[in-house]
Amino acid sequence: MPDGRSFYITTPIFYVNDVPHIGHAYTEVAADVLARWHRQAGEDAWMLTGTDEHGQKILRTATANDVTPKQWADQLVADAWKPLLETIDIANDDFIRTTDERHEQNVQKFLQKLYDDGHIYTGEYEGYYCVGCEEYKTEAQLEPGTGEYEGQPVCTIHSKPVELLHEKNYFFRMSAFADRLLALYDERPEFVQPESARNEVVSFVKQGLDDLSISRSTFDWGVKVPWDDSHVVYVWFDALLNYITAVGYGQDDEEFRRRWPAQHLVGKDILRFHAVIWPAMLMAAGLEVPRGVFGHGWLLVGGEKMSKSKLTGIAPSQITDTFGSDAFRYYFLRAISFGQDGSFSWEDMAARYQAELANGFGNLASRVIAMITRYCDGVVPSASAPAPADHEIASIERRVTDASWQAIDRLAIHEAIAAVWELVDALNGYLTVQEPWTLAKDPANRERLENVLATAYHGLGTLAVLLSPVLPKATAKLWTALGAPGTVQGQRIDRAYEATLGDRVAPLEALFPRVETSE
Length: 519
Ligand code: ME8
Hints:
The chain has a domain at 346-498: Isoleucyl-tRNA Synthetase, Domain 1. Helix 14 runs antiparallel to helix 15 and helix 15 packs antiparallel against helix 17. It has 18 helices and 18 strands. A hairpin with a 2-residue loop joins strand 12 and strand 13 (228-233). The mean pLDDT is 96. It is elongated. The strands form five sheets. It has a six-stranded parallel sheet with strand order 3-2-1-14-15-9, with helices on both faces. Strands 5-4-8-10 form a four-stranded antiparallel sheet. By secondary structure, the chain is α/β, with parallel strands linked by helices. The protein starts with 5 loop residues before the first strand and ends in a 38-residue tail after the last helix.
């Protein structure tokens, strides 16, 4: 049993150069569902998210808007990034900003330690820099520009020209860690997931690692290098450290020991930063490497990564305004295998909403509550003489509880939801076969009617618990209608079928009301 075990999950910290789109919301929802699931399994779960506020990209955006970078970041965090969490119902435990004092001070502490221990030296670098990625690019990561960028090399991710830079910088001796990294991927195959991401990282490191330029001196929007204030820390080196500065690194050893190491969720575009640079930094500092790095796929538009810079971003509220936050959460985690790319379409969203949420789950809940209200005056009947079909439902409840928890433990969120949906389908099939509405017509069938409704009621209780991380709003409403004590979030999810339920049902409004498809 996982009681009390620590589970620390993170999202990338997002650049505040622009407002969030559904790609950012996707990572948030995945992390939130995992955190909620682990929390409900009795673990000491902690979810961190936040914002990445330093570097040239933010500086340029702020300058173009005639404000200071800090003013810009404050405004975007307050008006866009924090409201996003509410829009999609994220229950994060902490929100870190790289401009927080707790972060900046401890970035300096970390850097000073690496400097004192001989992992940092002065060097010169010339290369193509992509401000969109905040990264020096290799030839393989560039392509010839076309149209207005004809004759210029452009970044393959942003399709924008890169800039040729020549700087005297501080370097991190990352090359020294290649062998230890390869040993890590070998000893812990689950360190980088999914398998395709692991293969990419292993073959990248096998080609040998360069040292990493970790400071910039041509602008000053960043954390000052502690021994040389003419340099600021390279934005990625600064940003990666958020995962430890947020949980006490450098200032609260007890908190740090309690939380670290984390499971990181990142889009596959930033996999190398997390699976190569970040563990090398931690090794250099003598700290434990992350529990794991999961690189999820992209939400695509017209076959390309949805992005702010290409103006293909859809605002999460465009979807939640119509379908609600529960359906948003459900859709992206159910329709896309976690780790694969996926596309969003309004048609698919509307179809799944109607078939799976409204007809499959919502209607099941309404029918069972309505029948107990009508045939039993709202009093939950007891299962006094269960038939084989009733035992079968009970055994499915146990099976999907175990299967979904095991899938979550492997970060296979879509498999966990699919496992729970077996119970939704089994209960709908059970009602079709048992026909409680027909049993209710003949008093001689009273005992059987009560057993069927008791079985369906219990199944709904198990479903409410199992679906609460994904559908927090709908399952809270259902929990109230079931007349069950406490909150649904307070129930143990790894033993969902044992939850204490109620003895009287209460009215239930439609969990997933009809949505006009023209919307
Ligand atoms: O990279 N599909 O921030 P960022 C799926 N600040 N996920 C997407 C996506 C899409 N189309 N677009 C964005 C940064 N994402 C750095 C991270 S971490 C120490 C620093 C999600 O604002 C995905 O999680 O560009 C991706 O990794 C993240 O947004 C990048 O956000």
